[in-house]
Specification:
The chain contains 11 helices and 2 strands. By secondary structure, the chain is mainly alpha-helical. One of its GO terms (cellular component) is mitochondrial inner membrane.
Length: 323
């Protein structure tokens, strides 16, 4: 989400800027819910493309992003495109709250005595924030992926004369807890950590750099104008998303609990990387990359919009540092 400390709510106490945490939590939740609702169908397509494995004769269920979208819509309808969205909407607020608060916390404590924050320390702050968020991200992504990929698995099973039972996020979660305990919800934690930490290391400093290049507002705040922050968020988000797409592919494949008959099984990050590279080549790690870029860019653009408009501040009657 947007790099807090750039376009965020602040107050001044004894000449020192203090972060207002509650507006961050509300803004992060609002931005997350709006973003998820807008781009979830593309995220579903991304998941199915990443989980798809090429058959022995080169056969594929989906030939492209558009082909996947058409086939999914035709087979499952409009609401089928939102499989797993309830899990995301439910957990997006705590996930974004942790990420924003953690990034602010680490930026504050890593700022040098002369008030500067070197690029290496910005990267460290972002990486540590990404590390903190996996507490919520891992189970959220695990359950979301099962729901998103259920249609693909069902369609493949139907093609060979088999059927698969319908599932819900609740039934999946309860079965995992019953059979494996709470740790069952944390399958793929290593891959999730690789993706989220590396994404935050790239995104937060890149956003801050791009945002600093644009024109400043004329209200004396020295903050970037809205369109600059919006475009910076979109650009930094999409570039970071593409850079870490290989980790996202690995994470998605490890967290897919049900496989189509004949598909490879994976035993950890290294095994998934090795088998994917051997059987599908390097390009497999960039499956769904375009989808992911298209998904991430508006998510971060929306985040900047919510911060700029001061939605939480208006609700709470708090004076925003953006105004």
């Amino acid at each position: 989400m947007a790099s807090s400390g750039n376009n965020s709510t602040t107050s001044t106490v004894s000449g020192t800027k203090q972060f207002a945490l509650l507006p961050k939590i509300i803004n992060g939740g609002i931005a997350g819910i709006i973003g998820v609702s807008c781009v979830f169908p593309l995220d579903l397509v991304k998941t199915r493309l990443q989980n798809q494995q090429v058959g022995p004769n080169g056969e594929k269920m989906y030939n492209s992003m558009l082909d996947c979208f058409k086939k999914t819509y035709r087979a499952e309808g409009y609401f089928g495109m939102y499989r797993g969205s309830a899990v995301n909407i439910l957990l997006i607020t705590p996930e974004k709250a942790i990420k924003l608060a953690a990034n602010d916390f680490f930026r504050h404590h890593l700022t040098t005595s002369n008030g500067t924050l070197p690029i290496t320390r910005q990267m460290a702050a972002g990486g540590l924030a990404g590390l903190c968020q996996i507490v919520i991200t891992t189970p959220m992504e695990l359950l979301k992926i099962q729901m998103q990929d259920a249609g693909r698995v069902a369609a493949q099973a139907k093609a060979v004369g088999k059927t698969t039972p319908k599932v819900s996020a609740t039934s999946i979660a309860m079965e995992l807890i019953r059979t494996k305990g709470i740790t069952g919800l944390y399958k793929g934690t290593g891959a999730t950590m690789l993706r989220d930490v590396s994404f935050s290391i790239v995104y937060f400093p890149l956003f801050a750099t791009l945002n600093s290049l644009g024109p400043r507002r004329d209200d004396g705040s020295n903050e970037a104008v809205f369109w600059c922050s919006f475009l910076s968020g979109c650009a930094a988000g999409s570039m970071a998303a593409l850079a870490v797409n290989p980790f996202d592919v690995v994470k998605t494949r490890l967290q897919a609990l049900k496989k189509v008959e004949g598909e490879m099984q994976f035993n950890g990050v290294a095994d998934c990387i090795g088998k994917t590279l051997k059987h599908e080549g390097l390009t497999a790690f960039f499956k769904g990359g375009l989808c992911r870029m298209i998904v991430i860019a508006p998510l971060f653009g929306i985040a900047q919009m919510v911060y700029f408009l001061g939605v939480a501040e208006a609700l709470l009657g708090v004076k925003s540092g953006n105004k």
